[in-house]
Structure formats: structure tokens, C-alpha cells
Amino acid sequence: MLITNGTLVTMGQANELVPHGALYIQDERIADLGPSVELAARYPDAERLDAGGRLVMPGIVCAHTHFYGAFARGMALPGEPPSNFAEILEKLWWRLDRALWPEDVYVSTLVCLVDALRHGTTTLIDHHASQNHILGSLDRIAQAVDEAGLRACLCYEVTDRDGRKAAMEGIAENSRFIRQAQNRQREGDQRIAATFGLHASMTLSDETLQVCVDAAESLGVGFHLHVAEGKADVRETLRLSGLRVVEHLEQAGILGPSTLAAHCVHVDRIETEILLDTGTMVVHNPRSNMNNAVGTADVPWMLKIGIPVGLGNDGFSNNMFTEMSTAYLVQKQAQGDPRTLPADQVVRMAWDHNARIARTFFPGLGPRFGELAKGAPADIILVDYDPPTPLTASNLPWHILFGLDGTGVDTTIVAGRVVLRHGQLLTLDEGAIMARARELAGKLWQRI
Ligand SMILES: [Zn+2]
Contact 280/259 with Cβ under 8 angstroms? Predict the structure, then answer.
């Protein structure tokens, strides 16, 4: 397929802007790119997709999300509203995840994937919990991901909060699904990946952590977990182990270059050094952090010492442009300095750093994943944008932060396959999914 007549935004090391550009896709990868006139002459017989002057960009990665949370929208909580993060977990999320049935997991995932495709989010790193239906739950998610036609890395969050049986089932589900995903990747399918999920230090005993470390080691994977998201995690970990969260996780053998640590809001300087030294990946989720009033992660510091912090949505909408905007604004407010976290750093987090995180879980995608380059996987979005001021490669991040939004995504392509064409979903029936979701969510609310 030949995409013509677009402004190519390559991202990656080159980060070039190619006006009147074209891209040639072959076998799920970008085979050629350059000026439209040249490529049209080189590939006269290729099927055409006219970009209509839109921006042509690499698809976006969301580095931390929860597909299981879709049915929480508009749900009323009985009793007093939660007054802190620990109460939000107990009164909302843990009640919701215990009430999920297998079909809820599947449809809740589809709701999130419709949103992802519409907003140009093509790869998602999910963290799942459905504590009364653990075994097989990751298959329900994978089925939805396969139907949508995008990429996702899945895991089950192991926790001791519901007793030993549930914890052991969580471990079994991770192990089973990791083997399955590894087999798929070995056979050349780079659409599903898996890692070992853990809830958080505060809900895991040392005994359970040790079982998880042994299992993950034998499978050759790292972990995906919440780290020092709220003060409760710090308090509980200090009480149980006498250590701060990152210190405790390091001692337990959880950290390393294949481990993804979500949040890291309440980490001190020593802990950030441990994250850096162990090569642990960190993902920032500013909308969620603001919503839960847990504080603001010191992202500028972590970036400064060399941690390639990525960006996730923690279950908020899959419009990652909104997450970028929030990341950009909250740091200025938090630090009281408008120079904090400039737009180029935010854009680097969303594209370069997130692609790097995704490549850890999908090594088969290769080193060019996340950019428009020859040999890169063809994960591409076309975005409406008619700039009111000159647009250059160097001022592009400020155009992205102040002018672009996910609602301008016109077309989404994953692994060379068009999944959204000019606003029309080609793989999912949005009306049917939303109708079924309303039915299931209504029943789930009654169970809760
Ligand atoms: Zn989360």
C-alpha cells in the first residue's frame, strides 16, 4: 500500500518533517518513504491511500493502562466518597475487579480498544485484575485485541489482598499466558506480548514475591507493577519491611531492565538512583495521579539523571494527546517554573521512550519501531492538522502540545493493516460494543 500526499513526521533519531511525502508499506513494514512524486513513480501499481495533506505519524504507545476499568464510568459509589488513594482502591477498584465476569473483561477491553483506534493509540501495555475470574482472563483480553487488530502486552496483577488461592491463581495465569505469548512471538506474530503482573509492594508478602521472582526468572521475563503510587504504599512497605518501596522491590529481585514501574510518585533521590542503576523502566500517568490526588512524580529529575520515563494513561481515555498535554501542564504547576518539562521532552516521552518500553516486550518489532523509517513496523496514523503558523521539525513538539488532539486522528494503521479509515472503524462494530457494554455495566453495578 502506498500512502501519498501527507506531511511525514518521522520521529526517532532523525525526527524529520517531509512535506508532500509518501510511505510504501509491504509485509507489515515500511518498505520505502520519501517525496510523493518519486514514490508514486516507483510503485505505480500499489494500492493508494491519499493522506489528503494530513500529518503522517508513527502510531502511539500507551505504556500503562487497565482495560478492566471501562465500566467504572458514571458508576455511583454508595456511602461516603473516598477521601484518599487507599480508600479509592478499596471502595472503587477492588470492588469493581471482584465483580467482573469473563464477558465483562472481554467487552470492557473492546470499549477501550475502540477508543484507542479512534485516537491513534496502536500499542497498549495493560495491567489486568478480575479477582473472582482469574484463570483464562488474559485470553478474553487477547481475543479482543486480536479482533481489534492492534498490539498489546498483557499481564495479571498478582496480589495477596484476596488470600493465598487468588494470589496463586494470578501467578498461574501470568505463567500460562506468558508461555502462550512467547510461542506466538516465536511463530512471528508480534501483536501480543506478555509480562509478569504484580499489584504493588503494599499488597504483596515476601513469600508471594519470591514465588513470582522464581516463576518470572524461569520464563525469562520482568514485571509490570505499581510503584509508590500513593503514600499508603510507602507507609505499608516501611511498616512490613523497614524499607522504602524501591529499596524493598530491589531487595526482592523485582527490578531490572525488563521491569516496568508505573507511577514512582513517592520515591526519593536514593530510590531514583536504584531505578537508574537497575535499568528499570518508569511510566508516568499524570491524569490518574491528579485524579487520585496522590502527588506529582518528579519526572524532570528522573529524565535528568537518565531514566527514559514513558507515558501511560492508567485507564483514562486512550487519547494520549490529552495525557501529553496534562504531563506538560502539571509539571509547570507542581514545580512553579514554566521552564519545567518543555514540549520536546513530553513528545520524546510519548514516542521515543514509549517505543523503547514497547520494544522490550515486543523484541521482534525491531529497533526502528516507533518511527517512520525503512524497515520499521507499519504502525501509522493520519492526523488532521492545518497549522496556523509555520511548522518545522524543531517546533513540531509545540504544535503537537498546543494544536493537535487525538480527535483529529483520521486513519489508523497497525502492522500495515488499516483498522480505522477516514473515521470508520474497519475491525470493530462500535454501536454493538457500546450497547452490550451498557447492558453488562448496568448488571455489574447492581452486583456491586
Ligand atoms: Zn495502574
Answer: yes
Per-residue pLDDT of the chain (448 residues; tens, 9 = 90+): 999 999 999 999 888 999 999 999 999 999 999 999 999 999 999 999 999 999 999 999 999 999 999 999 999 888 899 999 989 988 889 999 999 999 999 999 999 999 999 999 999 999 999 999 999 999 999 999 999 999 999 999 999 999 999 999 999 999 999 999 999 999 999 999 999 999 999 999 999 999 999 999 999 999 999 999 999 999 999 999 999 999 999 999 999 999 999 999 999 999 999 999 999 999 999 999 999 999 999 999 999 999 999 999 999 999 999 999 999 999 999 999 999 999 999 999 999 999 999 999 999 999 999 999 999 999 999 999 999 999 999 999 999 999 999 999 999 999 999 999 999 999 999 999 999 999 999 999 999 8
pTM greater than 0.85:
yes
Q: Residues whose CB is under 5 A from ligand 1 (ion)?
A: 314
**Distance (Å) from CA 135 to ligand 1 centroid:** 20
Gap from CA of 298 to ligand 1 centroid (Å):
18
Record the cell numbers describing residue 197, joined without a space: 503482573
* Positions of E strands within 247-406: 260-263, 281-284, 310-311, 380-383
Q: How many CB atoms lie within 10 A of CB 71?
A: 23
- Rounded distance from Cα 65 to ligand 1 centre (Å): 6
Q: Give 158 Cα–ligand 1 centroid separation in angstroms.
A: 13
Ligand 1 centroid from CA 70, angstroms: 13
> Angle 269-278/245-252 helices, nearest 10 degrees?
30
- Ligand 1 centroid to 289 CA: how many Å? 10
First to last CA, the chain: 49
Q: Cα of 227 to ligand 1 centre, how many Å?
A: 9
